[in-house]
Design goal:
The protein is about 0% helix and about 50% strand. The chain is mostly beta strands. The chain is globular and about 40 Å long.
């Protein structure tokens, strides 16, 4: 079955960086578009970024454009999200997602 396991979250100061990873299994990773979504405390799910199966086409929410970079390593079945210039508004649980499936999430807290 589909398994998505996120890692790399943590506490970071405003302006700092984090790199999230998502290890995928149970499906042909290179064939599917993958996404990152997030849920801030008390709010609904927000789409963050997506990448096509080949890793050539990327999409970003306006709120993260220019600060976040999505990428993937199909040889390792792993999805990444490089997050730079982090703001307090980026505080959320981050999930990688495929169609209707997502992992357990990794917490990102941006605070002094």
């Amino acid at each position: 079955q589909v398994q998505l396991v996120e890692s790399g979250g943590g506490l970071v100061q405003p302006g700092g960086s984090l790199r999230l990873s998502c290890a995928a299994s149970g499906f042909i990773f290179s064939s599917v578009r993958m996404s990152w979504v997030r849920q801030a405390p008390g709010k609904g799910l927000e789409w963050v970024s997506s990448i096509d199966g080949g890793g050539r086409i990327t999409y970003y929410a306006d709120s993260v454009q220019g600060r976040f970079t999505i990428s993937r390593d199909n040889a390792k079945n792993t999805l990444y999200l490089q997050m730079n210039s982090l703001k307090s508004d980026d505080t959320a649980v981050y999930y990688c997602a495929k169609d209707g499936s997502r992992g357990q999430g990794t917490q990102v807290i941006v605070s002094l």
